[in-house]
Design brief:
alpha/beta, nine-stranded mixed β-sheet, globular, 279 residues, three-stranded antiparallel β-sheet
Amino acid sequence: MKNPIVKFIVLIIVLAVLWKFFKPSHIGISGAEIGVVEVKGTIRSSDTLVNWIKRLREDSDIKGILLRVDSPGGAVGPVQEILEALKKTRKAGKPIVASFGSVAASGGYYVSLASNKIVANPGTITGSIGVIAEFPVVSDLLKKLGIQYEIIKTGKFKDSGTPFRKMKPEEKKLLKGVLMDVYKQFVEEVASARHIPADSVRKLADGRIFSGRMALKAGLVDTLGSIEDAVNILKKLAGIKGHVSLVYKKEKKRFSLIDLLINRLEGELGSFKILYRMD
C-alpha cells in the first residue's frame, strides 16, 4: 500500500472503528460533559457500577454525575458499595443529582443518599426503607420424594437458613438481630443525608412505599421533576452553562439461557439473603 492517499483513508477507518468501540456513548451536543450512572433492576452486584463511577471520578472532563435510578433495590453489600463509590465522587468535588424513574425503592433509594439533590417524578414509587431476609424451605417436598438430607457442621448456627429444614426459634432470633443492625445502618444513612432526626426516619422506615409527591412531603426527596429537570439542576451545581453532553457507559452483554437458569437456581436454593429490596 504505497499510495499515501489510500494509507490515509485506511487510517481514518481504523480510528473511526476504535472510537466507536472504546469511547463511551454521548447524548447531546458537544460541550461540558456529565457522567451518567444507571442503576436499573435488582441490584445483585456492584463491580461494574463501582468501576464506572471511579472512571467518571478520575476523568477531568466529567463535571458532574447524573444518577438515574429505576430499581427496587437488592443485596445489601453491593448497594452499600455503590453508595460509598458515589460518596467518594462527591467528596472529590463532583456534584451528583439523582433522577428517579418509575421505581427507586429500598436499595434503589439507598444509593441516592450520596446525591446533592434528589429529583423524583410525582408518581415514582420510592421509600420502602427496611430490610428483609428470605430463603425457601423445601424439606416437605424432599420428604415426599423420599430424599433425605444430612449435614455435618462445626457450630449450631452454621447451617442457619438452609432450605432443607425449617428455622429454629433461636436461629430466627439471631438473624433478627443481624437484620436490625443492617436496618439501623439504613436509618442512620437516611437521617444523615436528608438531615432528618433518626426518630423521625424510623416512623417512615417500616417498609412502606411512597409516591414521589408523598416522599417530597416527608423530606425524602428534594423536588419533583423529570430527568431533564435533574440535568438542569446538575448543570447549575456544576457551574455549566450552555449545552451539555451526557456520557453513558456502553454495555456489552452476552445472554445465555443456561447462565440465567443456573443463577436463578443458585439464588433460590442457596443460603438466605439479606436485602434492601421492595417486595
